[in-house]
Fold:
Amino acid sequence: MSAFIIDEVKKTFSNGEVEEEILKGVNLSLKEGEITALIGPSGSGKSTILTIAAGLQKASTGEIMFDGKDMTKMSPEEVRHIRATDFGFVFQSSHLVPFLTVEEQLQLMLDVSETKMSKKEQTNAIEEMLKLVEMEHRKESYPSSLSGGERQRVAIARAIIHRPKILFADEPTASLDTKRSKGVMELLQELTRTLKLTTLMVTHDEEMLPYVDRVITMRDGYIVE
Amino acid sequence: MKIAWKEMKKNKTRFLILGSIIFLVSFLTFIISGLANGLSQDNAALIKDLPQGQFYLDKDADKTYNLSKIDEGVQQQILIDHPEATAFSVQMGFVNDEDDKQHSLAFVTSTDSALFEKVKEGEIVLDRSLQEDGIQVGDVLTNNQFSGEFIVKGFVDQQKYSHAPVAFIDMTNYQEIYRVMEMQTIFIPGKDAPTLSALDSFSNKEFLNAIPSYNAEQMSLNMIVWFLVIISGMLFAIFFYMMNVQKIGLYGILKAIGMKTISLFKMIWYQMLVITAISLALSIALSQAFSLIAPEGMPFHLTMDTVLMLSAVFMVVGFIGATISGFQVKNIEPLQAIQQGEM
Ligand SMILES: Nc1ncnc2c1ncn2[C@@H]1O[C@H](COP(=O)(O)OP(=O)(O)OP(=O)(O)O)[C@@H](O)[C@H]1O
Ligand SMILES: [Mg+2]
Structure:
């Protein structure tokens, strides 16, 4: 059963006078426990479809079905609530909060998602999650003192600490060297399997493809294979 | 609101600068309002300390109290109709002390009333500030318009008029000095304010404003106070606005992961509240200390009531300023902010 279906999504941007159709009808369904990778040339619309699916911008037409409901018909507050509880995000740069320590970043995400966990359960979940991404030894560090790879691992931990159903990642390895990139991919693969996540990621890097379950190629606003 | 607190702890300088500006502005405001209040006390304590009531001047005086001459018949009738009423007069003048040193003061005389000092002919009761000038009970004072002498009977606190100490004297002596038989003003305490045909009537506030210079003085000082309050509100708005601009990326990320806009507002409010509370506490403490060490001659009078009232106003103004700056946060699109961060 598909958890997430993108159906005939189109997106038009108007730059002043000119209307440009960037997505020309994208169809895609994501499967639970799988990593789906979006690849394709620059400007083909990968980031655009990812952010629309993630509820960060609106589609011009089309439907996005999540848990049997059409997200394009929801109020901004409903979409926000889904982002807070059911989605997780990893971006190209880690976008951590500069004045929070590693464990506080995760605590913040738990607070935002209004988790029903008790205080003790939260502490344990943070502890476990940091072990999983191998960052427990840096839990009291601030982002500025971490390396790029470490930051990205914390960003991944933050993206899934609240147990979301879908994980969205836009070029999560782009700022890392090959060795670190592979580390991050291994982590995403493991987390997707063990936590039964549905993961959609955008990547440029062919070397990351062995770690994913499905590869979708985009070109000029269409999915080509 | 841990996140708001953590931010302040990590970015101490930024918030310290804002705090110290708020501290300086509020301190200045307290000092100036202390001065305004002190000057008003110095200018008109005699009138200000009277209970709520109604003042009457002769219609011909054209609202100028020292031109007012109330007809004796009219006065007598009013004092009979309103037993608690009193007629009084004030004029600026001088006395010479035993060393022939001249002291400027305001002579006040009144009909029998609990509201003014009762003095016998040839006696004088002075404001305490003259005691500091070296005059003592039992001293003999003279006035060049007055054939007799005044014996100092005692001193009273906080009786000032037109920035001069008040001297209470008997009606007969007053009439001799100023060569008038009529009184200037009738005051009827209490809520009922009868309309009296031959007389203009004034509330306490209107009468205070009829004192030369009182209005001008108070208006300019109060204007400064309110300007400072408005400036502090703008400072908040501008400062938070600039901080918010720097934090667009952060707010975008927080919104992207699903934080409510109201939580971002709460963050801003919390920070505003903490900074204002600390700055105000400091300037309240310092302004109270200042009122203790203020030089004796300086008309400085700052009550806790005034301070707390102004502090509340600062809180409200800070809240408004911070909230205005928050509207830009409301409009931040998470996606734009994230992409901006990546560029
Ligand atoms: N807000 C916008 N307004 C106008 N045009 C936009 C906007 N966002 C994206 N585009 C355009 O849409 C096209 C697709 O952009 P998108 O970011 O989805 O590409 P991409 O496949 O992610 O490329 P890359 O691999 O370089 O990240 C680009 O031509 C871009 O200029
Ligand atoms: Mg992209």
